[in-house]
Design a protein that fits this description.
Strand content: 15-25%
Structural class: alpha/beta
Radius of gyration: 23 Å
Oligomer: single chain
CATH topology of the largest domain: pyruvate-formate lyase- activating enzyme
CATH superfamily of the largest domain: tm_1862 like domain
CATH architecture of the largest domain: Alpha-Beta Horseshoe
Number of helices: 18
CATH class of the largest domain: Alpha Beta
Length: about 500
């Protein structure tokens, strides 16, 4: 009898100054795992971010990891030396996830696999995949290594040079991985029938995990918008949505199978074509009356939230609602393909409040640090969100290779064309430019924290006209100053 070819799939560590498990699962790699298993491969799995690894819990003297409300919580953190290029930063660097000793022991539990597949996320997290590949090569020197994911897609030349995989996959990986493995393995499995749509793929292989505190679901892939700071269209391909019934079936079955209540939507455009997509999905979920809690870590298009959708959110159990807003600056709306005006946001909040939400339960994204963006624009956007009684979720611009704003930053002298991805980290980016920019970012974040704490305590600084005017005057007294100046770091 022919032996099933065996694959090892690895989700690498995060190397960064901060990291937090905010419904963070490598859903792309889990889709690949499920599809490869379906066509005949045996799958081994190592997640370097597995908080439930028994040896990691033993090391911490715990029986379970720290899990907070709705299943989120911190990763295990080990301080490590900063890369030389980040030595100027006054913060500690860390590896998040299991120890290297635990990782090595996982690799040594069985014989060499036929191939190793490694995913990658943020471009500036590439030290994690690089270290994983180094250790894999030490233990399995003759096994082919395949790298995919966000970093591999956006920076293939850098990945081939620095991480040095044997093969690299760009974009969605299920079919590409299967075809590549069939070509390079003597016992590779063939795809008998090519999937015609997203629902032909099996759901993500969450059964590979020891324990789950939440699930993630994707009702679509891609995004029809082309925001100047976003690379989704390069990573996920054309925008496509799944069948309503299949989405509901997956949510219900997976939630029962893994006994979880918290489910996060990973869609970038969850509310698009709402009357044919998300509204029927929520109506079917409402009929099931399951005790689930839903979360939307990616920003929702506030313009699409009407009275019907708001009521369904509340009825079905959406607990985390984050709204896309970005900026109040009308000149930037068309430039960044912004979907939301201040009026759209205000109307969405009114619908959500009428449905039963308290305003302080809602959050709106405000972006800061775009090329040539002023302090005035950022503060005015923050104050508008605060004035509506919402929490502000600041999103620091991180230059993503291949996006319009990345090229603008290069053309404007804000970035060198050969910048190491480590320096695009949202923590590093402003300080690499100059120390004054770093402290501007720090002050903006402090203001956001104060405004959010006030909302928590039922205080809205805009209820009193005199105080509001004084606050705006204080924050905007240097209104023409950009958040970022020219680069002075050598």
């Amino acid at each position: 009898m022919r032996r099933k070819p065996r694959l090892l799939l690895i989700n690498p560590w995060i190397y960064d100054f901060t990291a937090y498990d905010l419904w963070s699962k490598p859903v792309g790699l889990l889709y690949v795992a499920a599809f490869l298993r379906k066509i005949g491969y045996e799958i081994d799995w190592v997640d370097c971010l597995d908080k439930y690894h028994p040896e990691l819990l033993k090391l911490q003297g715990r029986t379970r990891p720290r899990v907070k409300k709705y299943g989120v919580g911190p990763f295990y953190r080990q301080r490590i030396p900063k890369p030389e290029i980040l030595s100027f930063l006054p913060q500690h660097f860390a590896r998040y996830g299991v120890t290297e000793e635990i990782f090595r022991s996982e690799l040594q539990k069985s014989d060499a696999p036929d191939a190793v597949l490694v995913t990658s996320l943020m471009t500036y997290w590439y030290p994690g995949p690089r270290r994983v590949v180094e250790i894999v090569r030490e233990i399995f020197p003759s096994v082919p290594v395949i790298l995919g994911g966000v970093y591999a897609t956006l920076m293939p030349e850098h990945a081939l040079r620095v991480v040095q995989p044997d093969y690299l996959i760009q974009g969605p990986g299920e079919i590409q991985a299967a075809q590549l493995l069939q070509d390079i393995l003597p016992n590779g499995c063939a795809i008998e029938t090519l999937p015609e749509n997203l629902d032909d793929f099996p759901p993500p292989a969450f059964d590979l995990y020891r324990k789950l505190d939440y699930l993630v679901v994707m009702t679509s892939r891609g995004c029809p918008y082309h925001c100047t700071f976003c690379a989704t269209h390069q990573i996920s391909g054309p925008f496509v949505q799944r069948k309503v019934e299949r989405v509901v079936e997956e949510i219900v079955e997976q939630a029962r199978r893994f006994r979880v209540r918290d489910i996060a939507f990973y869609d970038d455009a969850l509310l698009l074509n709402k009357h044919r997509h998300i509204i029927p999905i929520l109506e079917l979920l409402a009929e099931r009356a399951l005790p689930l809690r839903f979360h939307t870590p990616n920003g929702l298009h506030a313009r699409q939230i009407d009275e019907t959708l708001a009521r369904l959110f509340y009825r079905v159990g959406f607990k985390t609602i984050r709204l896309s807003f970005e900026t109040v600056n009308p000149e930037r709306f068309n430039d960044i393909a912004n979907k939301v005006t201040p009026g759209d946001l205000e109307m969405a909040v009114e619908h959500l409040e009428a449905a039963g939400y308290q305003r302080k339960e809602l959050e709106a994204y405000v972006i800061m640090g775009l090329p040539d963006q002023s302090l005035q624009e950022v503060y005015e956007s923050m104050l508008f969100v605060h004035g509506l009684g919402l929490k502000i979720r600041l999103a620091s611009f991180s230059p993503i290779p291949g996006t319009v704003d990345y090229q603008r930053a290069v053309d404007g002298g804000l970035l060198p064309p050969d910048l190491d991805p480590l320096l695009t980290n949202k923590t590093v980016y402003p300080l690499y430019r100059n120390e004054e920019a770093y402290w501007r970012f720090h002050r903006v974040r402090q203001v956001g924290q104060v405004l959010n704490q006030a909302i928590d305590r039922g205080v809205n600084f805009f209820r009193h006209r005199e105080f509001r005017d004084a606050l705006e005057s204080f924050l905007l007294k240097r209104e023409d100053e950009p958040l970022l100046g020219k680069m002075d770091h050598e």
